[in-house]
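Hi D.,

Good news: the full-assembly prediction came through. Inputs first.
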Amino acid sequence: MPPDEWRMAKDLSAEKLKHCKPNRLRAMVRTMAKPLPPFDPKQALQFFCEHGHSGWLGLKYSGHGVDWVELELPWREDLLGEEDRHVLASGPIISLLDMASGMSIWNTKKVFAPIATLDLRVDYQRPAKERSSVLGRVECYRLTRSAAFVRGIAHDGNRDDPVATMAGVFMTIQKDPRSES
Amino acid sequence: MKADPDKLLSAYARSLGIAVHAFDDDKLPVLTVDFSSIIEGRPGAFHGGATSGLLETAGYAVLRSVLVEKGLDPQLKPINITVQFLSAGKQKKTYAQGRITRLGRRNANITVEAWQDDRNRPIATAVMNILMAERSI
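Then the structure:
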């Protein structure tokens, strides 16, 4: 390891590293010395789902391309919208699409940066199949300095027969100018 | 006839922690949800999906209670929803109430507002269209 990497290794708390195997430690130091790796939707989702709303929904990674991400919302009894039908409520589908939107933006930018949903529209074409999980596939089709435009669908297996279509605009969160002195 | 508060909430709404806070002078329901870890998106703030879920539930609740008053019980199906996020939902109790802009024969057009401390400063608003279908037997 080059000297600057050693220096960083020394800065890490000894307690934390006590049980680390040497090659694991070397890998950690290498990660720290280099710029952040490009955004990885699969890894990021695992991190997001350790807590919070996405974790509660149990969202799963399904796939991604250059400018799109697809996530899965598994079917669950306590997410139903109606008493007499085993169909997922529309609320969790908005959450799924909102999350897939964010992921598609970070995936397209190749970097994680704070964003805020400005406007989100969902058109429901039909109810999802009974006891079926729903997939949300969103593409980020335009990025500007301050806005990101997304569109996508929710489907239950066949992308040509969507459950819902959506469109949204997100803003990048910049430092509040009022907080600067 | 008055709407049963329990009937105004779906299984999804209840498990998210949404409850009927009160009925206003016009007997229209005001819903509420406490901030909790299952609501959280960005650390310390509401997830956009949770905010949308509250708005949508409030839209259904106001329509259902008005229909019950009229002695009607159609099946409600979502057509669409457009949510405007106005400011970050902080770690606070949040309220939402819907208003029926137009009640047609088959479609209801509804606007919804969600707020935290000050009702005049909503954190998010929504416009929804809900289809009212006769129940198939």
